Amino acid sequence: MLKIQAEANVPTDYGSFRMIAFSEDETNWMPHIAIVAHNTDFSAPVNVRFHSECITGEVFHSQKCECGQQLDTAMKFINENGGIIVYLRQEGRNIGIINKLKAYSLQEQGYDTVEANLQLGLPADDRTFEVAVEILNILDVKEINLLTNNPEKIKIVKNSNIRFNKRIPLRIDSTEESAGYLKVKEDYFGHLLGDHDNL
Question: Where are the domains of the chain?
Answer without folding.
Answer: 3-90+127-187, 95-124
